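User: Structure tokens for this complex, please. No commentary.
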Amino acid sequence: MEELIRFENVSFTYPGEEKPAVNNVSLSIGLGEIVLITGPSGAGKTTLCSMLNRIVPESYGGKIEGTITIKGADISEFTVGQMAFTSGMLFQDPSGQLINPTVEDEIAFGPENKGIPVEEINRLIDEYVGYINMQHLMRRSPQALSGGQQQSVAYAAVLAMEPEIYVLDEPTSNLDPLGSDMVFSLMKKVAQDKHKTAVIVEHKVEKIIDMVDRIIVMNGGSVVFNGTPEEVMVNYKELLRIGVLPPQVTQIFARMQDSSIKALPLTTNLDIAVQTLKAALPEALPQPAYDRIAQTFPKPAVHTNPVIKAQGLRFGYNPEVEVLHGIDLDIYEGEFLSIVGQNGSGKTTIVKHFNGLLRPTGGSVSVYGTGTQAATVSELSQKVGYCFQNPDHQIFSSKVMDELSYGPKNLGWSEEEIKSTIKEASEILHIEHLLEDNPYTLSKGQRQQIAVAAILCMKPDVIIVDEPTTGQDPIQSHQMMDMMRSLNRDLGKTIVVITHDMSIAAEYSDRIVVMHNGAIIAQGAPRDVFAQEELLGTSNLEPPQITRLLKRVGIEHPVVMDVDEAFQLMQVTFSGEQGVQ
Amino acid sequence: MRKTIEQSFLYSLDPRTKMIMLLCFIFIGVMIMDPFITVLIMVVAYILYRVSYISHKQVMKTTKPLLFALVLFFLLNFPFATPVPGETIYFYLLPNQICPITMTGILSGIGNGLRFIMFIWLADLITTVTPTGDIVLALNKAKVPPEASIAIGIAFSYIPVLKKEFGTVIEAQKSRGASFESKNIFKKVKAYIPVIVPALFISILKGQEISRAIEARGFTYDPVNRTYRNVIKFRQKDFIVILVMLALLGVIGYFSIAKGFFGTRFVYGLLTGN
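Assistant:
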């Protein structure tokens, strides 16, 4: 394969940092290759791919060492403006890269900058608007589109520049499952049609692995694995340790291999895994043994004392458009509840009724027996704490201590009371050492902790967290959710989590509520909800891959929720076979 | 099918024509103090709204918050409205013969309030029927460097985005027990600090993000020689509209300055004969 990109001993340090973000990386990418770069947050993935169009170092400053060549030419001699037409870059946040008044103008923007003739630009617009099937939205403002549509427009805008290399930096991190699927299928289509080189940074390995030729895993600024998907995925234990999730079908096959239960050829694809496993299964499944194991699977706690009651809740931001169509929902004391659904399904709209940010236009919501119609947000905030997704929307103090005391001060507590509450809350969340720090100098993860702490300091009985795991890597997601679990188990707080992530919801919740188009379409214990695959499909959600694998090979009961549970079933399935041999 | 703003006559005009239109209307508005004539111009503005396919409901949505200003203008006008010598004083707003209420005061109060609404209507109308892209092109014609005109264009596109972010910040702080309803102005300002700081921070982050996105799309390649896909040019209808507007301005200007027409009591005087 002809070489296109070459990194030679490349290191980069951001200004004011001591540790390099990218540390002595050497690698080579061939013409037409599709490469996935993955790894935990802070591994240097974005920095590495931002070097390809020289945004790093040009717009950040900082120190770069080593050489990067594209088609044999050292790119340090070019400006970002010039490199933009060689390495077309798609960013993470869709709305932050859409700068034009209409979709059409957005796609034209890159080609216009190159100064090419108008007829040629119009041809490019036609071609790429057709690519994303948005001919009917040409004159619409990109900011008025859904997340998935926005990212598609941004992608089309990059494609219209006809670069040699597509650089996609976490293109689906800020999207819901529907939007992600939209972007992933667009990526597939482009890969098939254009035969161009693509460098993709992504956490959702499972979704993308079947379209990439190679995987590069980074950790702490260095490349730790570099090879074909199969070559890299063999190291699943190490990958899990650093926070990269191999596809669940790969994990289960690898574990079965490692513990010599059954050696099946490793695969990253669900369909192939279904075929392979089906062929290997004994004719009669050991159902009694399955049922016995099912008894040992963790059972979600059942709670019965409702603290928040929504009855026939209807709501619309304006009278013509109703977004919630008669919701009946009880939240029970001490439970860990997840509300899942697409953007626009009404998840956030419901919970905003629980602390009075919104008032029902029909039906009622009561919190601890009192209707929310009569109470102020401030009064309700002592009962129901609402933690927004992005800590940047609420942090305003130059000291963590002041940030934490803001809520209690608003509630009119005494100085001593506030002090002791902050001490208590910061101990629970292990942030005592940060109290004197400036929140703006802390990491995003720490800021998120501060935001939760700020809510906790108001001593609410119910804590609502809005999409705490969006845009985070698997390790960060688990840290955040572990924190919620400890508030639930150790302090007895009722937790309501809004999320897109089905496996996170499964792992932590006592109960899941599935929303679609402003109505609840399913609710119950995670295992019961996952059994209804078709129903989830109507909301474009799907159970974890491992759940689908076992179901499709014919193991319908018990419904498994993670690789561990599936592994136990595989153990008993194949142990009999071993005995015979 | 219902027609959209994009199909209207005003939308199809050159942005420079629309700017001239707005300026003419502003000059006319400044010269006319009479509330009755102001109403006449408002009727014209309302007709322009409707022929641009902007619904009555949309216009009322713009107007509703302005009604408060109308009342305010009306009330605050009395201390400053000097009665015409010999005018009947109906009563005094304050004891000791302070703030006399006269017909002149009432007329100028209504006139000022209505003029305020009229100005907002016209500005709103012109900006609604002018696509952002056109504003950028008009600025380019005026020899504004592309860096600046693009920045202004982006600013327009981002107003709704920042408004939404601002709303989220307010909701987040309300959820922490914040109250913005204090009567005391200093307390009110202080209460808004927890909103302003995150809003500024987020705006700055967004700004950085946007600047990187623009660079990544090759804006710095050769800004001066970039292609502009759309071109604006004056057509016959633009010249006609400009001529009509200038003529109107001329006529009203002449009568207003040379003849002293359109004062606060102009129509009232004609009607009552004094």
